[in-house]
Amino acid sequence: MASPPPVERTRLPDRPPEPPPEEAQVYAVAMPPGTAGEEATPAAPGQTVRIGLMLPLRSETLGQAADALRAGFMAAWERDKTGFDVAVIETGDAPDEVLPAYQAALGQNDIVVGPLARSAVTALAASPLVTKPTIALNHPEGREATSLPPQMVAIGLSIEDEARQVADWAAQDFPGGEALVLSGGKEWQRRIANAFAAQWQRLGHASKTLELSTPNGYLSDPELTALRARLSSEPVELLFAALDADQARQLRTALNAPPLGDIPLYGTSSLNPGRVSLLQGTELNGVRLLDLPWQVQRDHPAVMTYPRPEPRDEARLSADMERLYALGIDAFRVAREIALKPGQPLVLDGVTGRLDIEFGNGPAKFRRVEPAAVYRNGVAVPLPPASSQQ
Prior knowledge:
This protein is of the alpha/beta class. The chain is 31% helix and 19% strand. The chain contains ten helices and 16 strands. The strands form three sheets. It has a seven-stranded mixed beta sheet with strand order 8-7-9-10-11-15-16. Strand 7 (179-183), helix 5 and strand 8 form a beta-alpha-beta unit. Helix 2 (95-106) crosses helix 3 (118-126) and helix 4 (159-173) crosses helix 5.
């Protein structure tokens, strides 16, 4: 059976509206001093920095993602806990639940990490509440047109950002080349197809987009036959696949005969189902993609520093939950660096990529660059740094 589609990392779903809980539940891993409502002041040198980690741990839609983030965050805190206390604050995921919990968290913490739900990030960004360093775990809706408060930085994983970075990479490999962008019918696939196409055209290159139907999760055989004919009569320099890994393998199998098999194929981390679902065989050999160091650079010093997440109920984590665990690690590391180096530009060799951060001097800026990889014998292996856009 086809593997499930990846977590839609820039549109984590919101749970249906329901009455807010009587109060936010706070689980102190290391309980910060002070009482609710007490105004906290920035930690002075030598003082403990108090971090509030806000997550919807019991949400029906976001609970699993929140738990993976929490586990990664605490793994990073365990390694570098000196001088830092963490309070895990359980909230709902709707804005009317998150905003009061956030306001209360400001009174007991120097830095707040969260929220996770996209709608909650949007509401918080539009509110006057953000008066202390806040590290959002997702991006707001209408991201390009939304200005974040100066004390807020959004570090969520974005598959659209990956697609834009892939376009930059492919443009280096094929300057002036024409691309055919192939998409399935899922909303997340259309989003990354549009992100790649827009960036490709912004770079001055021509592209066409073709949406393939996916009955029962598989590509349609008649459409693959038609695609072969089209590529034979209208050749392009490269293909971009806004597909999942099984669909990409189908595509490569259909195009494996020369000269079509020689057309370079690029994609995002959606083509990598992770090591729990290795794609045995050589069908994807040569396919180029981006993914987090956590997934494709396991011998990287920064990655080797942290433990792998523990499976629960004898079920191993999916690739997307692994990525969210990695985001939790980097969320703590970003919070730690902001506390230790206030107002300084930060460059972090993170487990989710190279992170460039400006925080504390005007509007915050954040950029993540993920490593390039290529499939070899069913495994996505990293390419030298010069192979991707830096």
